[in-house]
């Protein structure tokens, strides 16, 4: 018999891969705003409460979020804006329902909870220090969870990509599209991030459920890549043989009206020491990408 799981955001880029890989193991009680028969908007407290009350699942995986970082910046400071309502109020509604009905919350978060000023990999003990509105809403969501007395697990990812195509281009396919169409912007040599292989991240979520692991886990690749090196890897992997121009983040920042994290690469030593399977390196994962 399949194990029941409550889930938000499982039509999204990251969550839909978990469903695809684990649909034989889990049955999903979806809190889905687009569901035609039983839509659940996570910003609606009573809808969330009802959906969670009606499920036998022990865990809820919370992928849903307002994920448009630029769109969120336009709502900066607006607690009635959609970004805040979905990311903060929505998460608080889920926390309350988890408390009411004894569910364990697995929350998907982001490296954008950090300011990006650190010269090394971010760890789980680093303080939250968001510098833009999306990051701030995700940080507030984390705090609502860590301040609660429910069972919780927070998994932070960064720049995700998956093996198969999704409706929206991911971190690899944005570069592929730019290379194919000769429209790739100059790639920064001084911006650092930790690409996350979504297929492996699904295994991490399953591991949390299997082991009931609690606490914060940075859950990217644990590697640090510059945009230029990552684009070069993709160029080589798919044999595009295009010339990639080098860009300077500092010059770009002068043209941008919102703050941008210089470094979002995270250490995953904590996770790697606990999981019972191997995560792929970024190079191994990119080899598995089918265009
Ligand atoms: N993508 C990234 O670059 C990235 C990086 C770091 C962390 N993350 C985190 O990873 C998680 C998943 O991201 P993603 O890229 O998979 O997101 P996504 O593709 O933008 O999907 C977001 C999901 O949230 C759902 N949703 C939005 N508003 C909702 C509401 N009011 N009520 C119920 N559901 C709602 C959407 O439902 P519909 O499809 O029905 O609209 C969709 O399924 C998020 O928590 C995000 O913060 C993402």
- Portion of residues within helices: 25-40%
Radius of gyration: 19 Å
Shape, principal axes of CA atoms:
globular
Average residue-wise pLDDT: 98
Output the CATH class name of the domain at 3-163 and 195-222 and 266-279: Alpha Beta
Structural class: alpha/beta
CATH topology of the domain at 3-163 and 195-222 and 266-279: Rossmann fold
Number of helical stretches of at least 4 residues? 11
What is this structure's SSE topology?
Layout: E1 3-8, H1 15-22, E2 26-31, H2 45-53, E3 59-62, H3 69-73, H4 82-101, E4 104-110, H5 133-146, E5 152-157, E6 160-161, H6 171-180, E7 187-188, E8 192-193, E9 196-197, H7 198-211, E10 215-218, E11 225-226, H8 227-237, E12 246-247, H9 249-253, H10 269-274, H11 282-287
The chain binds NADP nicotinamide-adenine-dinucleotide phosphate (NAP).
What does this structure look like?
This protein has 291 residues and is α/β, with parallel strands linked by helices. It has a domain at 3-163 and 195-222 and 266-279: Rossmann fold (3-Layer(aba) Sandwich). The chain is 37% helix and 15% strand. The strands form four sheets. Strands 2-1-3-4-5-10 form a six-stranded parallel β-sheet, sandwiched between helices. Strands 6-9 form a two-stranded parallel sheet. β1, α1 and β2 (26-31) form a beta-alpha-beta unit. α1 (15-22) crosses α7, α2 packs parallel to α4 and α4 (82-101) runs parallel beside α5. Residues 8-9, 11-15, 31-34, 41-43, 63-65, 67, 86, 90, 108, 110, 138, 157-160 line the site of NADP nicotinamide-adenine-dinucleotide phosphate.
